[in-house]
């Protein structure tokens, strides 16, 4: 039985599961000791839900998004199952996934300056993304739809911007182009990988508001990958916390912020500046995420954990839910949940 079976958490808008990830594992390198980047991940995403994936750099957040999109780089080996409306995406093969990407599942990549082709006009790139799924419509029709998508993401003067190159646009405008490409075919799921990185605060707020509006209009699910807990608090229905390639906590957004249970989550939330905090300094988690090829046995967080005991060194913790929708992989939930 999977040690991290997902426990359904309440979403604000509907309960239809649209994406179901079971026992997902991504590894690199052959032999008896491959580097395991994602280890036994199980998650469910509901229609019109915003699920936020959080964790430090190197914890596997972006690899999870690539696995969903069928873009794990060679020679990566992916096992388990990713079901979209009952169909296992891992069994589709390259041709089948081309039909899914953009059409059913869209993605906004982390760096729009590097994900957009610098040699092609941005409008042409949107048209090409649509042409993969529509080989019947004329160029004029596709151009009109591309301009409509640009207008939908609030790009002023969309007809003129259609013919510009990425370097002629600001960072916020490039991000809007990336979102327009991702939603042009009206996908059911949008994966947004760090959509506000390197943007100023005002533009960040505009992008987040845009994503909310698109979600309401299109009734689509959003998988929001971020390390910014402020963005999580503002956007998420449910939150999955990752550490060293594993899921360690899963809860509704309110439950996670009101009652964090895993020591790692406590450390993440303790690093947020708060006006009411009495302690003179922010909390810090000592150490760093271990390399994929050197993962410790037992609980992968135990070398950095203040609650570490001998059990943690040798055994991987099973989830504890306390009969609610809050999933935590820790032997010491009562200790970890005590007020500091």
UniProtKB/TrEMBL annotation:
Domain of life, per lineage: Bacteria
Listed EC numbers: 7.4.2.9
Stored SUPFAM superfamilies: P-loop containing nucleoside triphosphate hydrolases
Membrane association type: Peripheral membrane protein
A GO biological-process term: peptide transport
GO CC annotation, single: plasma membrane
Ranges for domain ABC transporter: 19-269
Catalytic activity: a dipeptide(out) + ATP + H2O = a dipeptide(in) + ADP + phosphate + H(+)
Keywords: ATP-binding, Cell membrane, Membrane, Nucleotide-binding, Transport
Predominant cellular place of this UniProt entry's protein: membrane
Subcellular location: Cell inner membrane
Family named by the database record: Belongs to the ABC transporter superfamily.
Protein name per the record: ABC-type dipeptide transporter
